[in-house]
Amino acid sequence: MTDILGEDATDFYQQHFRELRHSGAHVAAKVFEECDFTQCSFNGARFERCKFIDCTFRSCDLSNLDVTSSKFLTVLFEECKIIGVDWNKAEWPRFAGPGQMAFKKSVLSDSSFFGMKLPELVLEECKARSVDFRGGDFSRANFTYSDLAESMFGNTLLSGADFREATNYSIDIRDNQLNGAKFTRHEAIRLLDGLGFELFD
């Protein structure tokens, strides 16, 4: 298997990486295109000035990952543990295209997307507790079936976002743009929190 930490290779195309153990490693200035990572551990690692294009991470541990100046273009994370990542440190285009990032059945708690523009972000069936979405553009995003307990929304663009079957969210309808957003009826009552209403059966 090619060593992604070595200096000899900088570009990787259509490669499959399995069970890599690089916790705390420093991966710098590498380009991965159409690559798959399966059951790999990059806990506490640093991806610096790397580029990931059309890549997939499955059942990987990416907790506390440092993504300084790295680029992610159409990347899928599935059944991954990605706790405590500040995605603001990555390098993003000024106008991000749709579908740039997708998280499915993953744990993203204690992470930050503060102020980011990621329209059509996919965050499906995830545990996303205490995640910072304030000041961002997540229009038409997919939050379905995700646990959003204690996650923060404020001055957030959520027009057309899909929250059906999402749980435990707290979104102030006075401080966020929700035109066309979709909610499951029984959970939508949460949108009335903070408005001073008393609800009775």
From TrEMBL:
Transmembrane segments: none
Protein name: Pentapeptide repeat-containing protein
Gene3D superfamilies from the UniProt entry: E3 ubiquitin-protein ligase SopA
InterPro entries the UniProt entry points to: 5peptide_repeat (IPR001646), PA_immunity-related (IPR052949)
A Pfam family it matches: Pentapeptide_4
